[in-house]
Amino acid sequence: MILARELPKRTIALVLAGGRGSRLMDLTDRRAKPAVYFGGKFRIIDFALSNCINSGIRRIGVLTQYKSHSLLRHLQRGWNFLQGAHNEFIDLLPAQQRVNEAFWYRGTADAITQNIDILRAYEPEYILVLAGDHIYKQDYSLMLLDHVESQAKVTVGCIEVPRMEGVALGVMHVDEHRRITDFLEKPADPPAIPGKPDRALGSMGIYVFDAEYLYRLLEKDLGDDASEHDFGKNLIPEIVGDGGAIAHPLNLSSIPAQTRNRPYWRDVGTVDSFWAANLDLAGDMPELNLYDTDWPVWTYQEQLPPAKFVPDERGLNGETSNVLISGGCVVVGSNIGRSVLFSNVKVHSCCTISEAVIMPDCVIGRGARLSKVVMDRGCVIPDGMVIGEDARTDSERFHRSEKGVVLVTREMLDRLPSS
């Protein structure tokens, strides 16, 4: 009898965290997508790593490439609590040209190929490949058990999504036994689920392999000059063609168990989806529970004083509702609704802020009005500035998304003419 709690100890998790995430625009100019701030005090990668720890997987490799300094610093400061003496670790695996000195990581599969010697030294039985840029809670031990019991060559995590969201994902068809019969990577016109014309079955970028099988697959792929050395484009479709791929729907292992009729998973790969997922957390009853002590989200956080609200110079207090406010914030007599304020945000008096995601160390000047805004770290908003009320003005000064979310960065503010 196979016990789910035993399998994580025989597994290495590899978190693919080297991508730029260009659809997040200027938010990833200085950092990789997994290092982008999320939810008031976290980074996006914290969710995949926390799932590993909570699932009992304590041997983890993080593969980095694009502008990784911010991510590496976060991991070194916040994820150094594992016990090396007990064979627990988070190994940082930057691109090192280990296989061929002519190439850095050329694709998701190649990133692992270039670290095969390191993986073999760990002697895992199973390898869990994870994307480091999605928001969700999942018990990976249940997915490992499903993989072993099904005797699949690869088990692919999947979830139903609105059909057109499939343009950014791998999209698959499955039979009645969950065997994947077709797999398309980022199709321009995603195929719908039979009987559900507005839905597609999307890959979560999560794969479970028997280690020895994966090694053979990667070595074969390395010798294929026509390959792009990518799981979604090359390896998974090949395994699907051989009939060896099984789908694992998130509703079989999402956390908490009572959410499995409607599991939570977000690809926060665009400014609009990033803004919406953050504001979801400010709702009355958010689908993603950050207050669940049975499945906590771990992170690094600076030691900061509590948030503080004080009246303005006239003695008037502002109003707040549905707001996440992190440590070190000071709000002076301002009205804030349905927003997320990260650490060390200072809001001066008489401001009106709604539907805003404001990252650490920002300063909002007196009398500013902000609506439907994502503000990158360290922005200083001048007194009286208005953002989010006039589409034309916003587009001239900042980046305005298709759905009207205004992205503001320090560089954009620096380019504005001085008054």
Kindly describe this structure.
InterPro entries: ADP-Glc_PPase (IPR011831), ADP_Glu_pyroP_CS (IPR005836), GlgC_bac (IPR023049), GlmU/GlgC-like_hexapep (IPR056818), NTP_transferase_dom (IPR005835), Nucleotide-diphossugar_trans (IPR029044), Trimer_LpxA-like_sf (IPR011004). It catalyses: alpha-D-glucose 1-phosphate + ATP + H(+) = ADP-alpha-D-glucose + diphosphate. The record marks 65, 104 as: Could play a key role in the communication between the regulatory and the substrate sites. It holds the Pfam family Hexapep_GlmU. Alpha-D-glucose 1-phosphate binds at residues 105, 170, 185-186, 203. The structure is a single chain. This protein has 419 residues and is α/β, with parallel strands linked by helices. Helix content is 21%, strand content 28%. It has helices spanning 45-55, 69-78, 108-113, 116-122, 140-150, 211-222, 231-241, 271-280, 391-397, 410-414; strands at 11-16, 37-38, 42-43, 59-64, 89-94, 126-131, 134-136, 154-162, 170-174, 180-185, 199-210, 245-249, 265-267, 308-310, 320-325, 330-332, 335-341, 346-347, 352-358, 363-364, 369-375, 380-381, 386-387, 399-400, 406-408. The strands form 5 sheets. Strands 1, 4, 5, 6, 8, 9, 10, 11 and 12 form a 9-stranded mixed sheet that branches. Helix 2 (69-78) links the parallel strand 4 and strand 5. The longest helix has 12 residues, at 211-222. It is globular, with a radius of gyration of 22 Å. The relative contact order is 0.12. The mean pLDDT is 91.
User: Could you say which structural class the secondary elements and strand pairing correspond to?
Assistant: alpha/beta
> How many separate helices?
10
User: How many beta strands in the DSSP annotation?
Assistant: 25
Strand content: 25-35%
Report the major sheet: 9 strands, mixed
Gyration radius from CA atoms, angstroms: 22 Å
Any idea what the shape is? Answer: globular
Q: Overall mean pLDDT score?
A: 91
Domain Nucleotidyl transferase: 13-281
Pfam families: Hexapep_GlmU, NTP_transferase
Family: Belongs to the bacterial/plant glucose-1-phosphate adenylyltransferase family.
Subunit structure: Homotetramer.
